[in-house]
Amino acid sequence: MSNVSIQQMPAFKRVYKKLHKSQKKFVDNALRDIIKDPLLGTEQKGYLSGVFVYKFKIHTQDLLLSYIWVPSERMLLALGVHDNFYRDLKATSNQIVL
Predict the structure, then answer these.
(1) I want to staple 77 with a disulfide (CB 3.0 to 4.6 A). Which of 42, 62, 66, 71 is the partner?
(2) Environment class of 3 (CB within 10 Å of its CB; exposed 0-12, middle 13-18, buried 19+)
(3) CATH 3.60.110.10 correct for 5-93
(4) Residues 71, 39, 48, CA angle at the centre, nearest 5°?
(5) Is 80 in contact with 69 (CB distance < 8 Å)?
(6) Where do the structural domains in the chain lie, given as residue ranges?
(7) Beta bridge partners of 63
(8) d(Cα 19, Cα 50) in Å, to the nearest integer?
(9) Model confidence pTM above 0.85
(10) Are 84 and 19 in contact (CB under 8 A)?
(11) How does residue 1 score in pLDDT terms, banded at 50, 70 and 90?
(12) What confidence tens digit (pLDDT) does each residue in 55-67 have?
């Protein structure tokens, strides 16, 4: 787990900075979990192949966190509720050049 770098796409940054401080703690805990074990998320299929989505709760609300990983890096793509999440994720993943 040592020396894992984190990159944030603009779609993730935009949502994260609008969260309340207490909500950010839940997201930070989810990020720690992903850094430790990137296979916690579910790998997507089709046009989102290679993208993982991790589902977690903030109080009673389900949130989705999408990311791409290699052993030394985690790229955070998007964060949000299920409504239009995958549609927006498709648009975000088209901008990624690996």
Answers:
(1) 66
(2) exposed
(3) no
(4) 90
(5) no
(6) 5-93
(7) 56
(8) 27
(9) yes
(10) no
(11) very low
(12) 999 999 999 999 9
